[in-house]
Amino acid sequence: xxxxxxxxxxxxxxxxxxxxxxxxxxxxxxxxxxxxxxxxxxxxxxxxxxxxxxxxxxxxxxxxxxxxxxxxxxxxxxxxxxxxxxxxxxxxxxxxxxxxxxxxxxxxxxxxxxxxxxxxxxxxxxxxxxxxxxxxxxxxxxxxxx
Length: 146
Fold this sequence. Notes:
- This protein is mainly α.
- The chain contains 7 helices and 2 strands, in the order αααββαααα.
- The protein has helices at residues 5-19, 28-35, 39-51, 76-84, 91-94, 106-123, 127-138; strands spanning 55-58, 64-67.
- α1 packs across α3 (39-51) and α4 packs across α6 (106-123).
- The mean pLDDT is 91.
């Protein structure tokens, strides 16, 4: 299973907004530059997040994008659901009627388990968790003096 660029870039853009939570809105070009994504594509990715109420935008001199709710209230499972849809690696997990073997298929059981475990991980993480991890990765390495 692999996330599309919508999922990965969208999550990174939300992380950028979470890093600036409580500050001024962040303009699209700054997010795009920081994340190495074209502003045009990023605008396309942010659109469903805005429609879902995770982010908001403001126009004008002090405009840009910001989170619509605190980063500790935004679960990664919600983000991925909005940007990617179902986490099921096969269609039969969500819709058993597409395959006549669904009731007896042992591989479907594995695909369902993959979806369940992935959902549990993403449901237990928030944007605030990503902010914390990002700050830890950006922290300077300790210096030792002899």
